[in-house]
Amino acid sequence: MEKLLFLNMLLPLFLLQFYPVLILSEPYEFPEKYFINCGSDSAVTQGSRKFVGDKNPSSFSVGKSNSVTDSSQSAADTSSLYQTARFYTKPFSYNLDINETGQHVLPISLCYPISM
């Protein structure tokens, strides 16, 4: 019983030390600069985000690759954002101009295989 009482006091004190970190932390906001429409030469807007085509990008560079387009009948029901892709057969990279220091999140969406 004495150990249980000790744990009931210790656990809240342990958790309390993380409270200032939670209060002072700001939520992460995605930068507006890099939303990429892979394999496309046109931009697509989804919600408030503009996905820029990566065939002729101005603010980043793309490694050697091929672009593919899903022209199947089922693609008509899919957002144009998911109808193109970039096809790599070797290691690849995107070089992004990042002006701010700190940590950055790069969300990557991998899609289902498309017919070519």
Automatic annotation (TrEMBL):
Residues 1-25 form the signal peptide. GO terms for molecular function: transmembrane receptor protein tyrosine kinase activity. The keyword Signal applies. Residues 56-66 have a biased composition (Polar residues). It comes from Corchorus olitorius. InterPro entries: ANXUR1/2-like, Malectin_dom. Gene3D superfamilies: Galactose-binding lectin. Residues 34-107 form the Malectin domain. This is Malectin. It comes from the Eukaryota. Residues 53-79 are annotated as: Disordered. Keywords: Signal. Residues 67-79 have a biased composition (Low complexity).
